[in-house]
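Summary: Need help interpreting a holo structure output

Steps to reproduce:
1. Submit the protein chain below together with the SMILES for zinc ion.
2. Request a joint structure prediction with the ligand placed.
3. Inspect the structure token block that comes back.

Expected: a single structure record containing both the chain and the bound molecule.
Actual: see attached output.

Input attached:
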Amino acid sequence: MTKGASLSEIHDAALQRLRQSDQRYTPNRRKLVETLHEAPHPQPIGSVLEQAAGLAQSSTYRNLTVLENAGVVHRIVTGDDHARFELSEDVTGAHHHHLVCTQCGNVLDVALSDQLEDLIHSELALAAASKGFNGQHHRIDLIGECVTCV
Ligand SMILES: [Zn+2]
Ligand SMILES: [Zn+2]
Ligand SMILES: [Zn+2]
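--- attached output ---
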């Protein structure tokens, strides 16, 4: 995904969020954030461990959960057993959507046009208002089969 924020801005945002959750921004957590920042698409934990050499599996699970609870990392649940992880939109500032493959579980980031985002935004605002719902942000995933699984 094209990142809106720079890596140092992302680190600053991550630090703030972890502080709000009474958590420390440890070197391993920084490394996880950097790995997810460099990844072109949401990653399963196996790929995260491969790319961030030296991290132990058990602590990485725990650190991803801490980062997720602090709002730094977003977990995408897919059809297979392996959730994908990416930096949250709040941290990157890069709003986007997902193509989720039901066969292999891969998730691709895609951006929609500003025109369509505006339309989605106003239609959802109307739908929310009709239910007295306080809408904050939207997530829309397209479920299907990726190019290698079709
Ligand atoms: Zn696939
Ligand atoms: Zn994404
Ligand atoms: Zn959108």
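--- end attachment ---

Reviewer comment: The chain has a mean pLDDT of 93. The pocket of zinc ion (ligand 3) is lined by residues 95, 97, 112, 117, 120, 138 (CB under 6 Å).
Status: needs-info
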